[in-house]
């Protein structure tokens, strides 16, 4: 096997390992969090998710700047009584709506910038659907955990493969 064929195979192997590494290192998006520390990041819009019967609390986090006017509306379904509670970045409860068998509404002006937390609490009933509208937060792009590290780890073998091709090309040119 000549040097060019060997370099091409090395390049393809490194490229394949880079693609495989991206599948392993970049995690899939998870559903809602079961605690404040695992809260799912959301942005303005509609949340529409199932809440299994074994879950009593569902946590979300949203980024707000100081002065943002948050509006949260949670629509009740007949299968469960839900409450919605809003927490500031320090974890202190700052607003709540706990109507029995009625839709829940919170309006709140954020006093501090940072992640605020929304807890949906099931008070009674079985599994249900969370249908919640969130508005007024500063839009912030969602970060993919570990993405920066994955890019670095993928770049190293790719750079090695390109370097190997350049050396082969340089060696071939010197031989001529």
What does this structure look like?
- The structure is a single chain.
- The protein has 176 residues and is α+β, with helices and mostly antiparallel strands.
- It has two domains: 3-27 and 145-175; 36-135, Jelly Rolls (Sandwich), CATH 2.60.120.380.
- Helices cover 30% and strands 36% of the residues.
- The protein has helices spanning 3-25, 147-175; strands at 40-41, 45-51, 57-64, 69-75, 80-87, 93-97, 104-109, 114-125, 128-135.
- It has a five-stranded mixed β-sheet, with no helix packed on it. It has a four-stranded antiparallel β-sheet with strand order 2-9-4-7, with no helix packed on it.
- Helix 1 packs antiparallel against helix 2 (147-175).
Short description:
The chain contains 2 helices and 9 strands, in the order H-E-E-E-E-E-E-E-E-E-H. A hairpin with a 5-residue loop joins strand 5 (80-87) and strand 6. It is α+β, with helices and mostly antiparallel strands and 176 residues long.
